[in-house]
Amino acid sequence: MSGKKPKWEKEIWTTQGPNAVACETCKFRASVFNGMQKDSANIGHCEIYEYPEIKPDDVYFDGAECEFYEKADDKPLALILGVAVGDALGVPVEFKARRTFLVTGMQGYGTHNQPAGTWSDDTSLTLALADSFLTDDVNLEGIARRFTEWYDNAAYTPHGKVFDVGNATAKAIERLKKGVTPEQAGGAGERDNGNGSLMRIAPLAFTDATDDKVSKVSAITHAHRTSTDACIIFVELMRDVMNGALPSWALQLKSAPEYEIRSGGFVRDTLKAATWCFVNTNSYEDCVLTAVNLGDDTDTTAAVAGALAGTAYGMDAIPREWIDTLRGKELIEQCLF
Question: Is the pTM of this model over 0.70?
């Protein structure tokens, strides 16, 4: 043996008692008795397999990967980061017309005068939703409370500032503050079909939420059938992506020309545009850049497309420099872990 100790020794050096996090193999290998390093092949319970927040990216012993170690499922984090990175790429050029600009990476300021890596309401409300169901099991009152906390106190924002709030969302939250129930707060008119509920609905794909529950979560801010149906379709699409399959309607978009793809704020247009970007590209990077460069509602189109691509391709597919530029990454970790 070379005497090397596990790469993660300083991070989780707890090996005794009821809260041990290292399996017996690592525990004994990292122990020294009479100047000699112990080695044991006994495999006991290893909490590091079960709790993603304490799992390092890799575990090595003596230069080789631990044969018993399995990485945590990174799809939930990849989804949220996929949304946040796409959102941040689109923020500086929101409302600009297609072909009047070209985004190739993270940049700052522009439309909303925000530093590079700043995400907007799309990510904030996605985080509020994810935080809610991890705590309250998709409890509508809990979700509504967190939406209001975001709106009033800038919770779930990268640097304590709320900007780019959709009209339908703002009106719904004002109703919530007046005591209207979450089921009745969202606008239900034909003109209340912006993409404000679609942009945040993706985390429900990781729950067992039924179509009815998805509809009710949408209806907190967007209650018209057009919006609730779009959210139901998108959650189903997300689940299909997680299972490695796509519905026929999504595959048919591969043949659609770009000029047929609208990228404004109408919920159906956003669903179609984000899906079009996903099925016509082969990487996270290409997907979200294609979405941003469609123009108009750049941050939301890229956030929704980023949810699909982040889930499909995983954490390793999101460019590291983009993640490093992202503001408020610690908030994302807090909401997931």
Answer: yes
